[in-house]
Design brief:
Elements: E1 4-7, E2 9-12, E3 15-22, E4 56-59, H1 68-78, E5 84-87, H2 92-105, E6 111-113, H3 116-121, E7 127-131, E8 134-138, H4 166-172, H5 178-194, E9 199-201, E10 205-207, H6 215-226, E11 235-237, H7 254-269, E12 294-295, H8 298-306, H9 319-326, E13 328-330, E14 344-348, H10 358-370, E15 375-378, H11 387-400, E16 407-408, H12 418-422, E17 429-433, H13 439-445, E18 455-458, H14 465-475, E19 485-490, H15 492-500, H16 503-510, E20 512-516, E21 534-537, H17 540-550, E22 553-556, H18 559-568
Parallel strand pairs: 3-4, 4-5, 5-6, 10-11, 10-12, 14-15, 14-17, 15-16, 18-19, 18-21, 19-20, 21-22
Antiparallel strand pairs: 1-8, 2-6, 3-7, 7-8, 9-13
Helix pairs in contact: 1-2, 2-5, 5-9, 6-7, 8-11, 10-11, 11-17, 14-16
Length: 589
């Protein structure tokens, strides 16, 4: 008999059983799970080093990157996926990976949502069996000869309560080709999961699925193209996994470089623009306030919603292109006024003499506390953070949170005042954060124990023109240490603008290198020097992911400190004055 029996919500139908692997912290599959082995590589996660293959993975939710769906598809197709997923909150990114495995490759695994209270009860269990919406947990593997029932992978019927336009039905009936038909089927399955009853038109899309996670990501895109896929709305592409113009000269292994470059070509053959940037908000095509769009790439989603006041969900890889092929998205979440209301109030006390490390550190810390809740941050009304600081805040926030946006009172456009953001709905939770509360997050991001430095990695997300200018000013008249590489990733458009402004020449004189099309979450050796055992970055996002992605320890600090370390060859490791309890007047509770 099971120790625990739970009536769950089935997000993706199926039957499975296996040893339970449980954690009370959300997990980003991109940067958190090795797509070739199923090992948890997020070195900040309690499951670090464990292998999810064949186990029932129980996590409260996903978090971080939209590419988690692509990683899970890779794992399913190469035989290293979990037996099933149990989540506390409805999980869209990982569920989408399973839906694609079903729709295109007739492979699946069950995904069930059990709620917060029941999820906590699983902590001490060792074995879990899932049959449809029934979850049973055991102290030891049961002795019965249970066999999973075969799953019905037939096409998913449209719920009778769902409203389809004539155009939707034409797509669903295959009048616009098989690619659009399959895409619409997947869109409708996700709409049901989200609780939507109709679709909306979208003005543009930004595709994150062009990141190469392995053979499955290319196989998926080529299948759609073979079926005649063509986007129906203006579509930009995220950073891909290589610098398409220079990867051979950089010494990238062709076994990786060729399929990674080909994946970008396949999406362009579908009609997407050759933008190749993880900061599409820096493009001339950036959406306006209120515009309904479909963006993937976690930092871009958060920036679009929070800073631009455009409207998008945190779309998983593969769903992004499905919506671009149909021009239609589920009417739910942040597309609606009700889906943008904060449920968490965070009061902060900013230090008086902070540097630019403050905002990514604050975003990283608040994201971990927020989980999937949209926060409203107060206390920064007089701080006037720049767009670059909001970019850094949002990217770090999106790394540790599953939420699609944030509000900052007096700063972001939908929160001119706290009252405007709350629209009369009091938050469910309230937190107060002092500067000294950030110390734990600072130490988490600073994982290096040696001052020796081999690389300064900048541009995660991609550098803006103003960041190039700020870096050029800091490097003027100086030269980097010969043993330290300083590499900046940015989009092609920004590189051209920086070149015209003279910043590229100035930084080349310092010894800096530029890489376009890709970004640090995809870069490895030899762009990352083989001999470099320690790196430094001003990105909270990359400081989190680098230990797992490239096996290097990290120094995290502001841009000026990064330049100083690039010149000396060593990171000081010192706390900034505004964070040091001995010097900060803002410390304490």
């Amino acid at each position: 008999m099971p120790e625990l029996s739970i009536q769950a919500r089935s997000l993706v139908a199926g039957n499975a059983q296996g040893e339970l692997l449980y954690a009370d912290v959300g997990l980003s599959f991109w940067g958190g799970v090795d797509p070739s082995s199923g090992e948890v590589i997020d070195r900040h996660h309690p499951l670090s080093g464990r292998v999810i293959a064949g186990r029932v993975l129980a996590i409260p939710s996903g978090r971080g990157s939209c590419t988690g769906s692509s990683v899970l598809l890779e794992l399913i197709l190469n035989g290293h996926g979990p037996a099933a997923l149990v989540v506390a909150q409805p999980e869209e990114i990982l569920s989408l990976g399973v839906l694609v495995a079903q729709a295109l490759f007739e492979r699946d695994l069950p995904v069930v949502c059990v709620g917060e209270e029941a999820f906590a009860c699983l902590q001490d269990c060792r074995f879990v069996r899932i049959e449809g919406s029934r979850v049973e947990a055991f102290d030891a593997p049961p002795a019965d000869a249970w066999r999973p029932k075969p799953d019905d992978l037939a096409s998913h019927p449209v719920a009778s309560s769902f409203t389809l336009s004539d155009g939707d039905r034409a797509l669903l009936d295959g009048h616009h080709g098989k690619a659009a038909q399959v895409a619409m089927q997947i869109v409708l399955q996700m709409a049901e999961l989200q609780g939507a009853s109709e679709l909306i038109d979208i003005a543009q899309a930004h595709i994150d699925g062009c990141i190469y996670t392995g053979p499955a990501s290319l196989r998926f895109a080529r299948q759609l193209l073979d079926w005649g896929a063509q986007v129906r709305v203006p579509t930009t592409l995220n950073a891909i996994s290589v610098d398409q113009r220079l990867w051979r000269a950089q010494g990238i292994d062709p076994a990786f470089g060729e399929p990674a470059s080909a994946l970008g070509d396949v999406y362009m053959a579908m009609g997407a623009q050759m933008s190749f940037t993880c900061a599409p908000y820096l493009l001339d095509s950036a959406p306006k306030a209120g515009e309904q769009v479909v963006w993937a790439e976690s930092n871009a989603v958060v920036y679009a919603n929070s800073v631009l006041a455009a409207r998008t969900q945190k779309y998983p890889d593969f769903l992004d292109i499905c919506i671009a092929l149909t021009g239609r998205a589920p009417r739910s979440g942040c597309h609606l006024d009700s889906g943008r209301v904060p449920s968490l109030l965070v009061e902060v006390t900013p230090p008086e003499r902070r540097d630019d490390a403050y905002y990514p550190l604050l975003g990283y810390h608040i994201g971990a506390l927020a989980g999937s809740q949209i926060p409203l941050i107060t206390g920064l009304e007089q701080s006037a953070p720049s767009l670059d600081e909001l970019k850094a805040f949002g990217a770090a926030f999106a790394t540790t949170s599953g939420a699609p946006m944030f509000h900052i009172a007096g700063v972001t456009p939908e929160a001119a005042t706290a009252e405007q953001a709350l629209v009369g709905m009091p938050p469910r939770r309230r937190l107060r954060i002092t500067v000294q509360d950030l110390l734990a997050s600072w130490r988490e991001l600073n994982s290096a124990d040696s001052p020796q430095l081999g690389l300064v990695a900048l541009g995660n997300p991609h550098f803006s023109l103003s960041e190039c200018a700020a870096l050029a000013r800091l490097c003027a008249g100086r030269r980097k240490h010969p043993d330290v590489a300083l590499v900046i990733t940015c989009g092609r458009q920004v590189l051209e603008q920086a070149s015209q402004a003279g910043h590229v020449a100035a930084l080349a004189a310092f010894g800096a290198q530029f890489v376009t099309d890709t970004c640090w979450c995809m870069l490895g050796e030899p762009v990352l020097p083989v001999a470099a055992t320690t790196l430094m970055t001003n990105s909270g996002k990359y400081a989190h992911y680098a230990p797992g992605l490239v096996g290097r320890r990290v120094h995290f600090a502001g841009l000026a400190a990064c330049v100083e370390a690039a010149c000396s060859g060593q990171a000081s490791g010192a706390l900034p004055a505004w964070l040091n309890p001995a010097t900060s007047s803002q410390g304490g509770h």
